[in-house]
Amino acid sequence: MNHLISSNQKTVGLWAVALLMTTAFSFSTVAKDAKTTVVKTLSNAQQIELLTKKFKKGKYSKKGADSCLKCHDGESDRDGTQIFVGRHGALADASGPMGQLQCESCHGPVGKHDKRPRKGKQREPMLSFDKNSALNAEQKNSVCLTCHDNDHTRMGWLGSEHESNDIACVDCHILHVEKDPILSKVQQNDVCTSCHTKQKIELHKRSSHPLKFDRQVCTDCHNPHDSTNDASLKADSINENCLSCHSEKQGPKLWEHEPVIEDCSICHAPHGANNAMLLKKRVPQLCQECHSSVGHSSAAYVNANGNKVQGKSCLNCHSKIHGSNSPDGNLFQH
Ligand code: HEC
Ligand code: HEC
Ligand code: HEC
Ligand code: HEC
Ligand code: HEC
Ligand code: HEC
Ligand code: HEC
Ligand code: HEC
Ligand code: HEC
Ligand code: HEC
Fold it and tell me: Closest Cα to atom 40, ligand 5: which residue?
């Protein structure tokens, strides 16, 4: 294989900065790789110390990816080659890793990692993004943000709900694949609901948005990188979100129903509900939250013909519940 490395070797500066600024590391795990009894594995804290030193020294490999692939080839159980089928493997892209430090743009300088470890010692670690990694979310993210900071879609990342809750980019994204599952319409909902179990339950309720059939994805409504709007919605408000698809409910109408203008989610659950039409409560209870049960609305209404109203209850008569444009629609009957 040809040498992939470019002459222009930049250092991954942000990592080191974030590392020095972060005071609290998690010291939780000890020897996690205890397969071989002779090898003493480093604690997370020791690994971080070592990685920090490595970054200061900044010893990058001369042959870039080629030197890594000697060991991390398709035969290895730690295969590195799959990066080349994904977006980050594009060789011609100067702004991508392959136009820069290649594998080491993300995994840090090789240092002594490619040297055989001394007897009884662990191989010098690289930055790892997997579950057993010694790095916390902020440290992992600092690597990605060296390139993805100026991207307009990530402007809101810092301070976002996910960032504030120590979620890492790589908790959602996988890079050594051709197609990152979270970027796929068919798989995204599964990735999101692996953490958001409440929403997972909701979208299997009696009525729901068509999320479970993959006709809709979470990011039709949400921006996972940004929490500028309530509930990290893409739209400025809940109503703008709903109306972006249900434009027929858009006002102004001659006769408006106040709660409809205020907030669709007063009556509707966005992900799913045990009642039809995503309603949070059944009619008439839903209506009676606000409308006094004194007078005709308290019990089954008997109309002029003496017929009791059943089934759709209040909606039998007040069917234009989202407002009416009819001149005599003030009671939402027409
Ligand atoms: C001489 C063989 C060899 C070379 C060259 C090599 N590695 Fe490794 N690498 C290994 C072995 C073996 C492991 C597993 C270490 C362990 O289990 O403790 C490993 C583990 C890793 C890991 C997992 C995290 C860790 O520290 O355990 C990453 C990431 C990694 N290597 C990246 C790279 C990159 C990037 C390069 C090129 C700059 C590279 N490696 C070069 C042998 C090598
Ligand atoms: C050396 C720079 C660099 C680093 C480091 C980097 N990326 Fe990227 N990334 C890019 C470039 C360039 C693209 C292509 C951008 C485009 O198409 O607009 C990209 C694209 C992506 C995409 C879109 C992929 C697709 O298939 O469309 C995702 C997701 C992504 N990066 C996540 C990450 C994550 C997570 C990390 C950290 C583990 C990371 N990146 C680290 C440069 C980088
Ligand atoms: C909660 C899950 C989640 C987290 C955490 C996350 N992303 Fe994403 N990311 C997504 C989803 C979903 C998309 C697809 C966006 C869409 O369809 O609107 C995406 C898209 C992207 C894209 C490519 C498409 C674009 O909009 O340009 C890049 C690049 C990216 N993310 C980088 C990052 C980086 C860097 C981080 C960490 C700082 C990060 N992401 C954290 C879920 C996440
Ligand atoms: C854009 C950043 C990026 C680049 C470039 C990159 N990797 Fe990775 N690597 C990751 C992330 C993130 C993971 C976690 C698994 C995943 O996302 O697929 C990973 C996982 C790995 C692993 C599995 C072990 C572990 O601890 O995570 C190895 C080994 C590895 N990469 C080696 C390489 C090699 C070799 C190259 C160059 C040929 C390379 N990587 C290029 C980001 C990158
Ligand atoms: C690794 C776990 C994890 C994954 C994967 C994940 N989230 Fe989250 N998400 C969280 C945590 C933790 C919070 C903050 C606490 C909470 O609200 O549950 C959160 C919060 C949110 C919020 C509330 C934001 C706010 O401003 O109130 C939304 C919306 C959200 N996530 C959507 C998504 C979407 C969409 C995806 C998939 C693209 C996703 N999440 C993937 C863990 C995750
Ligand atoms: C049709 C639009 C829409 C879709 C699709 C959607 N959401 Fe939401 N989501 C909302 C609205 C509106 C809110 C705010 C109102 C509320 O909390 O009831 C919200 C709130 C949330 C919250 C915060 C609620 C809380 O209890 O703190 C999370 C987390 C969330 N959504 C996750 C998801 C996930 C995960 C998916 C995909 C499985 C998803 N959403 C799909 C519209 C949507
Ligand atoms: C991204 C587009 C989109 C957004 C945003 C959206 N919806 Fe929907 N909504 C749909 C689709 C698609 C259906 C299913 C229609 C079908 O099956 O024919 C639907 C169905 C519904 C239904 C009927 C459910 C049933 O059981 O038949 C209600 C009620 C509803 N949406 C309310 C809302 C509310 C309230 C909001 C805002 C929180 C909202 N929608 C946001 C696309 C959207
Ligand atoms: C006061 C309670 C209430 C509010 C607020 C409300 N709705 Fe509804 N909505 C209902 C009821 C009740 C139904 C069921 C109507 C039926 O069964 O005939 C319904 C049905 C729907 C339906 C599916 C049937 C249809 O008419 O298309 C959609 C879509 C919908 N609402 C969207 C919205 C949107 C968008 C908003 C906010 C702009 C909103 N709703 C606000 C009570 C409400
Ligand atoms: C969150 C509170 C709320 C809910 C829930 C609600 N409404 Fe209303 N409704 C109002 C308010 C406020 C008005 C305006 C009252 C006024 O102007 O005196 C109104 C007006 C009305 C009117 C017009 C009568 C008038 O005095 O203007 C009718 C009819 C009505 N609602 C029926 C219903 C029905 C049927 C339901 C259930 C599907 C329902 N409402 C649910 C708050 C609510
Ligand atoms: C059989 C038709 C019918 C049914 C069913 C019905 N209404 Fe009415 N509603 C009317 C008519 C006609 C008026 C105007 C005359 C009146 O005040 O009785 C009215 C007036 C109202 C008003 C405005 C005046 C007032 O009484 O405050 C509200 C609010 C209202 N209805 C809510 C409800 C609710 C809530 C339900 C269900 C529990 C309901 N209605 C069921 C026909 C009906």
Answer: 192
Domain count of the chain? 2
Atom of ligand 9 nearest to the CA of 314: 35
Q: Determine the Cα angle at 82 with ends 223 and 113, to 5°.
A: 105
Ligand 4 and 174: CB distance under 6 A: yes
The answer to whether residue 156 is domain-embedded is no
Task: Indicate whether 138 and 190 sit together in one domain.
Answer: no
* Residue 33 is assigned to a structural domain of this protein: yes
Tell whether ligand 4 has an atom less than 6 A from the beta carbon of residue 191: no
CA nearest neighbour of 165 among 141, 200, 149, 144: 141
Residue 170 CA: nearest ligand 2 atom is 35
**Is 31 within the bounds of a domain?**
yes
CA of 183 to the centre of ligand 8 (A): 31
Judge if 229 and 137 occupy the same domain: no
pLDDT tens-digit series, residues 126-170: 999 998 999 999 999 999 999 998 776 667 899 999 999 999 999
Helix (H) or strand (E) holding 207: strand 207-208
pLDDT at 25: 34
41 & 114 share domain: yes
pTM: 0.92
Examine residue 66 and state whether it is found in any structural domain, yes or no. Answer: yes
Q: Which domain holds residue 229?
A: 184-295
pLDDT in tens, 167-187: 999 999 999 999 999 999 999
Please tell me if the CB atom of residue 183 comes closer than 6 angstroms to any atom of ligand 2: yes
Final residue in a domain of this structure, among 77, 108, 142: 142
Q: Is the CB of 176 under 6 A from ligand 2?
A: no
Q: Which two tokens stand for residue 19?
A: 């590392």
Alpha-carbon distance 23 to 226, whole Å? Answer: 26
What CA–CA distances, in Å, run from 267 to 15, 69, 252, 284, 318? 47, 57, 19, 12, 15
Ligand 2 pocket test, pick from 12, 88, 91 with the greatest ligand atom count within 8 Å of Cβ, gives: 88
Residue 277: CB within 6 Å of ligand 7? yes
Give the number of the atom of ligand 10 that is nearest the alpha carbon of residue 296.
18
